[in-house]
Structures are given as C-alpha cells and as structure tokens.
Amino acid sequence: MARNTILISGDAREETRLADLYVMTPGMLAELADAGTVIPHSTDGGQADPIFVREQWENDGAGIDDNVAIDDECTLLFVAQGTLVNAYTSDTILEGERVCSDGAGGVRLADSGDYVMGTAKEDSDLSGTNGRVLIYVWPSGVSA
C-alpha cells in the first residue's frame, strides 16, 4: 500500500543537513558527512545507522517523490528501534524479509553476512516514481 510520508509510526529525532554531492530522495538511508552535510549511505550490506531522509527542509509543497537538490537542506530522521519507515528501494522485497543497505541510499534484500537493519512489514512497491518498502527498524549491531 502506497504511503505519502516517510515516518509511519514510532519515535524519531529530526535534524537538518545540507545534501552534499548527491541528490537525496526522501526515504533514502543516509550517512552524516563532513561540515554538517549528508550523503546516501555508501556501504553495500555494511553497518548503517538508522538515519533516513524525510523531505526538503523548506517543504514548500514537496512530496516524498521530490528529490532534494545538491546543497539544499533536507530533514533527517534519526529513528528508534521498532520505528516503521517508508524506505527507498529498487529491490523486490517480500513481507517478513530482512533488509540492509544497498550502498546507494536504498535498502535491499539482505544476504548472509550483511548488516541487517530491519524487516519488511509488507511487499515492496516498485510501481511509483520511486520504489518503497515499509520496514521495521532493528537495533544497531544485528547482522545476518
């Protein structure tokens, strides 16, 4: 089922950062970079803090499929364990499957040895402008 928001339920702290070197899409898994900036999480299958791009900071009518341009501010969600997030993906993921970082800001189906960061609540939806999957975020330190 398509959702028009990134944070579905649970606790999250918000912070704004500049998109550095990359266009950011709401729902992307992010990592903090130098000088108050953010980039897409860049380690395929690697350890990832549960930080997701929410939207362009100004949010002047922008939706979850509207990218945040390079050097624009975006809102980040630092989510707690158990939070339900509408994450960005290009992978076919089925309900109940474990997910990890795809190394380009999205989540993908986790393989053996990957750092698992969550479980899909339902099947991924790849029919829209950007693929999405609802995931429950796991605590840090879990691996497949």
Summarize this, please?
By secondary structure, this protein is mostly beta strands.
Give the CA-based shape. Answer: globular
Give the strand line-up of the largest sheet. Answer: 1-7-11-10-8-9
Rounded mean pLDDT score: 90
Structural class: mainly beta
Q: Helical amount among residues, as a percent range?
A: under 10%
Strand content: 35-45%
- Note the main sheet: 6 strands, antiparallel
- Assembly state of the chains shown: single chain
Tell me the domain tally.
Answer: 2
User: What is the number of helical segments per DSSP (H or I, 4+ residues)?
Assistant: 0
In sequence order, what are the helices and strands, one letter per element?
EEEEEEEEEEE
Query: N- to C-terminal separation?
Result: 27 Å
The counted number of beta strands is 11
- How many whole angstroms does the radius of gyration measure? 14 Å
Low-confidence stretches are none
Structure commentary:
By secondary structure, the protein is an all-beta fold. It folds into 2 domains: 11-79; 85-137, no CATH class. Helix content is 0%, strand content 36%. It is built from no helices and 11 strands. The chain has strands at residues 7-9, 12-19, 30-32, 37-40, 51-56, 73-79, 84-88, 98-101, 107-109, 118-120, 132-137.
